[in-house]
Known about the structure:
Blueprint: H1 2-14, H2 21-33, H3 41-58, H4 62-76, H5 82-99, H6 102-118, H7 123-139, H8 143-159, H9 165-178
Helix pairs in contact: 1-2, 1-3, 2-3, 3-4, 3-5, 4-5, 5-6, 5-7, 6-7, 7-8, 7-9, 8-9
Amino acid sequence: TVACAALIRTYTYEFTDMRPLDPWIDVLQSLLAANPRLPSPVAELQVATALFLALSFRRPHREPLEACMARLVELMAGDVPDEDAATACGVLLMHLFNIGDLTLSEKIAMRLKALYAKGHIAPIGQALGHIQLGRLHFMKREHSAAVRCLEHVLALADEHAIALPLVKVYAHLNLALCA
């Protein structure tokens, strides 16, 4: 179950063609239907984050997504590493933007900012999250705040040699939208 979720989570970093997720959604849902005993709340958060990502982009049906989102929020409030909670926040924000829920997006963004303030998020996690924060500012028509977030993403990428194309592409794309 955890390995299947890890495979699904790799699509967060590639973020191009999500169609290959379809069979993995079926596998993960089948594994979860057997009510496996996961080794820890962290593992459960990682599995729930992966399932939510896959469902949001490939099978966006309301009831399964709402159930998964409720569990994600519950798990994020528990004793889990900041890095995993930040990843879950980023995945939730992507979904919330897609459905136009700025109210819940604000709450999740505040949680993400609180995680950053603790200082335990790796630069790649900060870069990915700041893309989402920049997007939120853009959606709220706070363009100067969006630009600051997105320029921070590019500075992190340069300073820490983050080579994931999605980081620079999405930062530049969102900066272009702000222009």
